[in-house]
Amino acid sequence: MFSGIIEATGVVRQVAGRASARRLTVAVGVVGRGARVGESIAVNGVCLTVASSRAGVLAFDVVAETLRCTTLGEVATGDRVNLERSLKVGDRVSGHFVVGHVDGVGTIAQRRSARGDVRLTIRLPEQVDPRAVVPKGSIAVDGVSLTVGEVSATECTVYLIPETLKRTVLGSRKVGERVNLEIDLISRYVCSWLSKRSGASRITEAFLRKHGFA
Q1: Topology of domain 8-85, per CATH?
Q2: Secondary structure class of 41 (helix, strand, coil)
Q3: Has domain 104-187 been given CATH number 2.40.30.20?
Q4: What gap in Å lies between CA 207 and CA 214, rounded to an integer?
Q5: Considering only CA atoms, which of 193, 112, 176, 191 is closest in space to residue 149?
Q6: pLDDT tens digits, residue range 87-103?
Q7: What is the pLDDT of residues 140-159, one digit of tens each?
């Protein structure tokens, strides 16, 4: 479990492997202090397990499903990535609860600057139900906890303050680039429940009509 408050950015030192599985080696700086094999760290919003740890450099094994569902398959040597260690019980949650399970990959459709902040309009992928993206609600973009501004059937807009621009890789994201999206945990479960309830209602109605009760 994470909070979407990025602790630092790291630099990818090496990408090894094939399309079916890769190992990312990342220079993580202070995030690596005390990091042990088996711990979870969010890399661009994706929950990964530390496979090896040495002198501020961590390695992560990324399986095919993660490569398919996130942008980690596009990461190259020299790229900067957002990093966050998992929460401890009793920590402050300054953002919102983030699990590191990416719902889909969005595309930056527009980037606008206004009075020091930046507005990113993100095109939502088909895997993300726009009903779960709520104005004034939360969404994690490349692991960064952000507040949703406007929402349409295909896009949402988020606002980046100067501190976010300085401390995360979102400050350098450009139009056309892809970003990992994780919708708010509560919204995810509510939408899932409503979808199942709607499906069950249709089945019930069909049963009643078939047997002459409706």
Answers
A1: Elongation Factor Tu (Ef-tu); domain 3 (2.40.30)
A2: strand
A3: yes
A4: 9
A5: 112
A6: 988 887 888 989 999 99
A7: 999 999 999 999 999 999 99
